[in-house]
Description:
This protein is α/β, with parallel strands linked by helices. The relative contact order is 0.10. α1 packs parallel to α2, α10 packs antiparallel against α11 and α12 (319-326) crosses α14 (363-374). The chain contains 14 helices and 16 strands. The protein is globular and about 65 Å long. The chain binds S-adenosylmethionine (SAM). S-adenosylmethionine binds at residues 36-37, 41, 45, 66-69, 71-72, 90-92, 95, 118-120, 134-136.
Amino acid sequence: MTQADNYNEIIEGATAMFVPSTKHLNGPMARSEPVFYNPAMRGNRDISVLFERVIAEDGWNILDGLAASGAKGLRLYEEGKHDCEIVINDHSPKAFELILKNTEHWDRGDRVIPSNHGLHGLLPEKKYNWVDIDPFGSPVDFLDGSIRAVKSRGILSITATDTAPLCGTYPTTCIRRYGSRPLHKGTMHDTGLRILVGNTIKRAAVFDVAAIPILSYFSGHYFRCYFRMKRGAKPADALLKQFGFIIWSKDGGYTTVPWPEKGAIHGGPLWLGSLNDQDLLGDMVRESEDPDMSISTDSINLLRDLKAEIPSPSYIYMTDEIASKCKVHPPNTKLFVKSLKDKGFQASTVHYDTKGIRTDADWATIRELAKLMHK
Ligand SMILES: C[S@@+](CC[C@H](N)C(=O)[O-])C[C@H]1O[C@@H](n2cnc3c(N)ncnc32)[C@H](O)[C@@H]1O
């Protein structure tokens, strides 16, 4: 690492870049920094690079709409596989200065286009094959403009770091922002992801666009979702049929219903359909294992775990939640999953928490098994 001005020169992935010389270890970062760069978001950028390599095509134009230092756009350009034009945009003059420095110092050529515009003004000017939105907090402010700026069959990717509303610490904020009630129980991160995905699908449907979720995950302190955008009222309507509510019963079990009964403890309306395209995940896992790639082990593991996760039902059980309801020690997650499978149920671990289990087994079976394993 070398230092110039107020910047450190680093290599993230396989891309050299200058970043602000502030000390930061992990988790969310203050937005008061003159230019934002969070090393803890490396995984977000790793996976964007893999996504580019598997999904993008030569000739695409990509908008890194809220770019800060430009880290993501620069990595897409350097580590992506395709000949794409990448607009790296931020409204902050300081961020733009750094984006320019990061472009000119390495003479990155005319396929990288630094841009210093407010995103709301920039989006209506042009259509892109891929728009990436990586805001402070919630992406809702930028959703409508971004949806309209993506070409048909193109990609919209969004990050959300407003985990507290989405997971139910601030339910009123979640309802106001996403039009959906969160559920502050063990399944809250899965529910938060489905609220975020569902809200994007609903916003896109307003414009007769189907936002088809193809890659969605939670990691540490943020949610991340990628959508294939398809024009047409019919495909948009087909997605809207896959919404419903999640119910938590006081004895500890979850179910999903089209509409909650009066008095039911519920979250929603939220997306109950598939969050990930299994073929895409397979391709990305293979790509991440290429020895020529510089993808972090954490990102490779996240993709492998996501690939191993069963797609439904639309909730998960936490082993400590099972333990407290059954008055037993928390069961071993992998052993519990194996026992459920031995009984003929579908079951898997969950990509974001080693204590999570996704299974189609009913709550009575889960309780019985937890008590049996405790003996
Ligand atoms: C979380 S940071 C982006 C991080 C970046 N994608 C990365 O990987 O390091 C959000 C950025 O959005 C920029 N921003 C906020 N509102 C904006 C707007 N309306 N138009 C353009 N940029 C904006 C901020 O200046 C900030 O640099």
